[in-house]
Fold each of these.
Amino acid sequence: MANQIKQKHIEKAKEITQGKRIPLFINGEFIENHDVFTTEDPTICDQIAEICIAGESEVEYAVQSAQKAFESWADLSPRKRGDYLRKFAEALKSASKEYQIAEIIDSGLPATVSSRISSGALKRAFDYYSEWCDKLTSDVISSSSQSFNFTLKEPYGVVAAITSWNVPGMFLGYKVAPALAAGNTVIIKPSENSPLPAYIFAKVAKETLPPGVVNVIFGKAETGKLLVSHPGVGVVSFTGGTEIGEQIVKQGGIKKYILELGGKSPNIIFEDANIDSAVFMSAVGMFSLAGQMCAASSRIFVQKSIYESFLKKFNEMAKGLSVGDPFDPSVISGPLISKKQLERVERFVEEGKKSGAKILTGGTRYTEIGTGYFFQPTIFVEAPHSSPLAQEEIFGPVTTIFQFESEDEVINLANSTRYGLSAGIFTKDISRALRVARKIKAGTVWINTYGIIPHNAPWGGYKMSGVGREGGREGIEEMLQIKNVYIQL
């Protein structure tokens, strides 16, 4: 079975790369470079492509190309920009199979998740923001009869879009579509862990957009530093870890930042909740991407009276989850992205044991699937809430379950981390649900569900989980700066 999986993945990789190194995409053209790094398929732990690295000269060329394209792109009528975005969305639909293969082999994203959450979200974003182009309005400000005061909303110029590797399509859609709709041009720098989806994105851009409007460069930390610190970049939109987000702000200096960072999301199960629904949604919210989600339900709080019952049902579901080859349509949890990430998860598990926490299930690598970076869905109980296990983002299939007695107690526990990205509440009491939702310090609160991110609603975090919002009207407003115009009559 392992050999069959490996052979299939190698063949799929050849479909994407055609046996060639992956070039940069600047000013509407693909450009090769002698400096390369390799990208790996985490399901089979094999290198699948050489990726060209953008150095200082290539970053400079990308910024200059985006700046030049901005001059004409921003001057287009809003309706014309909308037409371009609709054309791009249709081309994405035609390229969806190729795009999904790139996501599966490069990020380990299960096929069902790619089609529904990532590549599907990418097309929805371009469809959605194509309709926003001619619907942005400014304000007339109250003034005396001797003056007239109004605002203009204008694009910043060049947007640097730095995307994460776990759901590449969703983040490309969240960043690029509203930036273009607002009249900005974009330079994409994807994570070095999954560059191939952005390559497919570049192929679509070449077919549908004017040169320089979208550019795609590859590289590691040095390329990212060159991009965010460039004075020609007006906005940096980044999704990734909190520590890297802090570095980006230091490197980039004074400019606009939209940062979607880490999370340690609380998921609160009250005693009157539909326990079967709570168990299912908590498992999906934790394990569907092998726990590699900033919004993963990695702290589950269960009211004392139903704690044992929930624990039993949740443990059974975790043990029965389908983990394996992400091309298998029955699989909901694939591999971790890299050996480094696998070792990180293992370190947290060992630290959890040392803190006195107990493993209910999981806690080790999968060996029967093959050579990939697979880790068992893991449940901890009886962990000190002050321990790293309960305070730090693990980004793996590891959750900790706590019990609580009162509403005030669980609100205090839920808010007792540096993060504030998302939270879940399960209860049949709508008054309690809304009361608790108001007190939770998080950018998104789900009630009686978990992990739903509508494309037409804002997404972002409180505290160290980030600044700014993506998605919805707020997503395009973030890509615009406001100018006040005052006229003395």
Amino acid sequence: MGIVSYGRAITQRAQEDPDRVAVVCGDKVLSRALLESRSNRMARAFTLRGVEPGRLVTIGLPNCLEFVIACVATWKCGAIPNPISPRLPARERSGILELASPALVVGFDDLVHEYPALPADFEPPSESDDAPLPDVVSPHERAMATGGSTGRPKLILLRVPAEYDPERPATILTPKGSVLVPGPLYHAAPFGSLTQGLLTGEKIVLMRRFDASQCLELIERHAVDQILFVPTMMHRIWRLPEEERRSRDVSSLRMVLTGSAPCPQWLMRGFIDWLGPDVMHEVYGGSERIGGTFITGREWLEHPGSVGKPTRATRIRILDPETRVDLPTGEIGEIYIMPAGGPGSTYEYVGASSQATDDGWESVGDMGRLDADGYLYLADRRTDMILCGGRNIYPAQVEAAIEEHPAIASSAVIGLPDEDMGQIVHAIVQTSAPVSEEELRTHLKERLVHYAIPRTFELVDTALRDEAGKVRRWALRAERVGG
């Protein structure tokens, strides 16, 4: 197979082995042949409703077989999938749709008078043509939507056509058996896992929603060999009773990756001890694909806390966030990356502008440092950093220490205005068992410098992170201080 469009690659996989399972979700299964047939009929239905090459199709569906069919149909039209959360607040959804100006919206029944739309349960007539369509290449693989750290929506259009080259896979996720996708498909990493699984023709095990117990059961049942977790998922698995975790057969796992947020050292070390240093890996990189890093479990043990060295000829610099002057080795600053293909080669924003230096080094707003060996260590998002009495405090580090306590399910640390200190550290904590503020402070005194220990705690019983492990600190801050 030479370089082909995504649609043609999926067609060829169906022709090679039509009965092989393509996607499993709950008790529903799509064979390669059924995926091919249903996506061809859906693509024709899209075309009849005005979908043309280069236009966006907004997909507002949960993780399900219908999402996969709609996505493949979009590629087969030469259009661009724009997955968004089906539970977005109306205002945020409207902002994204205004930017996308989609040719079609799938999944939001209340939008029929605003945009051409199909309901979530739409099925083309069974007698409609399911033969392969004329081949066409989408100019952009995907258009992911994000609110970033500010809450202002933007789209990330990858400057990569939807073409598949089997000699040069686009990701390190190249499954050989079964790949489990535990996260929501409207986020970049799970969407990438789905895409690569479809193109390589391997079985995709799709979770509707993440559940720690079910996750281990699916790994055992489907002999999953690859999976990408966000740290929140790892945390929930680790909080299962040890006898339950140990009783599951996870020996099929060949590569487990974590990414999308800083992984606490204690948690990464626990997973390495459990699964082995040759199985656990960590990655870093934004949805913009300007570059990233990768580290094996064995390397991590030698450089604990690191997310690795740059991959694919990526170059990294650490600059002062205000002056954009290079900082010395070991000093925390803003992470700037030069893509292997040069400035502006990987993406374009719709609704925002990039944070680039005059010579084209780009930042997505993350803070970190490099050690003497060139390994990168993450701190936090620049916009989330708390300045308290002239000291920089990184919420992710405080949250990692809080969540090491066995009674904590999740946490979010924000800065609240303070006349004396500028900001104070405020911790919003979701508990899974009774715990006092005094107990939390004692726990944190052993793990944090004194000025990073939260001044105030707010105990809640609702989840603070979404299905992808993301926390919207800007929204939590706005709820408490306004604006």
